[in-house]
Write a structure and sequence with these properties.
Largest sheet: 3 strands, antiparallel
Order of helices and strands: EHHEEH
Strand content: 15-25%
Radius of gyration: 13 Å
Number of helices: 3
Distance between the termini: 44 Å
Structural class: alpha+beta
Number of strands: 3
Oligomer: single chain
Helix content: 40-55%
Length: about 70
Amino acid sequence: MKPEPYRSFDELPLVLSVPEMAAVLGISRTVAYDLVRSKGFPSIRIGTRLIVPKENLMEWIQEQLQKKEAL
């Protein structure tokens, strides 16, 4: 059975796995893995696992919006 999608920011776990982040952002897993490996993206490596703190993800999104508006 497929898990229910998150309906709000508050429902997200403190840290997101890359597949969870991909689902939240509506992007593919491949693009999500490219993103977490890119310079400046707020990911943490624990062993072989990459995770993204939800607060840092939201800050990163805001930064991207500000960069876009500055153009």
